Amino acid sequence: MTTTAAVAIAPMLIGGRWVETATDTWEDVYNPSTGQVIARTPHAGKEAVDEAVEAAAKALPEWADTPVVERARVMFRFRALMEEHFEELATLVTREHGKTLAEARAELNRGVEMVEFAAGMPAMLMGQTLPDIASGVDAECVKHPVGVCVGITPYNFPNMVPLWMFPVAIACGNTFVLKPSEKTPLSAVRLGELLTEAGLPDGVFNIVHGARACVEALLTHPKVAAISFVGSTPVAKIVYETGTKHGKRVQAAGGAKNHLVIMPDADIDQTVKQLAASAYGCAGQRCMAGSVAVAVGGAGDPLVEGLVDFGKAMKVGPSDPAVSSAAETIGMGPLIRDDHRKRVASYLDIALQDGATVALDGRQSASGDGFVLGPSVVDHVAPTMRVVKEEIFGPVLSVARVETLEEALAQGDGCEFGNGAVIFTQSGHAAREFKRRFNAGMIGVNVGVPAPMAWFPFTGWNRSFFGDLHIQGTEGIQFYTRQKVTLTRWPKPSESHHDPVWRSGR
Q: What is the rounded average pLDDT of the residues 287-297?
């Protein structure tokens, strides 16, 4: 690996000022298409976290009192700036993450939708009233901000996942501290610059960088009210337990092992395309990636044959347009790091040791200086194998074979995760049984990636989510607000009482 001559330092945003932290610990930020270091992320500790949270706490009273219409107008201006800089933002995602330009644009579109959702906050913050809930008593329920909110986000969607969080939190009247992944900090920094340009007051949005020490300081800070997290299941569990122990409300989205069930009546050609997009999109580095294809009845052989042919035809390589003139035509880009590429590739040997068959070996596509690994297909897997039980987070699709839909449903029941699941079929009865009974929170019928859009919650189940209120949609608004109920009685004045305003005749 080589280092470029000029390496940027990812700055922190604290109280409206871009600052560099004094630290001896740094994280290299790579361009996965080349293997070059393009930036460095400081590992901030408790002092930087204290500064950021204090800045957010200082800005909170005035921002919470700002009319919701004015807060929404900031989101409108922010959205316009995102559209103006759309290609720049997409290219930045590709440069620091490695996903293709098409995938980066799709990610950014989903982020823009979240800003649009937040811009509609005046309608969504309306309360409830009921006059005469008792004799002469009126009741009202209104939503208030919760306070200083924190977002801790992963590397795989450096633009979209932060946008799941802070637009809604800010539009609800909270202030925010974002801790982006130390592997992909540049997109978050650019979003912070655009927020400032949109007119967001100083201190309402802050950015700190770091790893474990930084996260622990955020989870335990007495002035933090709410924490949103997306990452691996082991860390999500720690975040939830630590945050709630210190009196914070927490939503923590973890990992997944998503099952895709292929019934014998499925259109194999269309199914193969959907499965490949699900398993190999973003190089498999997403919690909604298809991980285990469950072929029912005679669907197995034609499915595997189609997947192998599709995978062999995929164009895999560098996705950064500054590196390759063919970047726009790449079907799958590199993985985030070389050590991650080696970890993902190791599962192919593990699968062979466990008795599975590697029908397509993605290691044959690994070449050049970037972190490239091609698509893989592992056939004849069993529920006890590691490739089925563990989240690989890479372009490896395992294929299990069962005889009935009941057996396929049982595989879902035996999985510790519960993010998404999909069925490919032409049978309305099979689809109805599947969406009613499969043990996951997001279901697709002939849809490869059943990830909901901004208006619906991201409803992971089991060990894919820790908390009560999910990210996105109306649940996101509930998470970032607290309700206050007021009962009011205005007794009729006695005849002897003189009101200088209402009895004056003016």
A: 97
> Which residue is associated with the tokens 């969504």?
124
**Half-sphere exposure for 332 (CA within 13 Å, toward CB):** 30
128 exposed, middle or buried (CB, 10 Å; 0-12, 13-18, 19+)?
exposed
User: Which DSSP symbol is given to 460?
Assistant: -
Instruction: For domain 12-255, give the fold.
Output: Aldehyde Dehydrogenase; Chain A, domain 1 (3.40.605)
DSSP 322: T
Active site residues: 287
Separation of alpha carbons 406 and 419, rounded Å? 20
Average pLDDT over residues 298-324: 96
| pLDDT reported for residue 498 | 59
Task: Evaluate if residue 24 carries a pLDDT over 90.
Answer: no
**Pairwise CA distance, residues 209 & 101, whole Å:** 26
Average pLDDT over residues 130-149: 96
Domain boundaries, the chain: 12-255, 259-445
Task: Find residue 143's DSSP bridge partners.
Answer: 483
Q: What is the pLDDT of residue 284?
A: 97
Cα–Cα distances (Å) from 125 to 128, 144, 476, 481, 483, in that order, read 10, 9, 12, 9, 10
Tokens of 428: 């309305």
Between the two ends of the chain, the Cα-to-Cα distance in Å is: 83
Fold of 259-445: Aldehyde Dehydrogenase; Chain A, domain 2 (3.40.309)
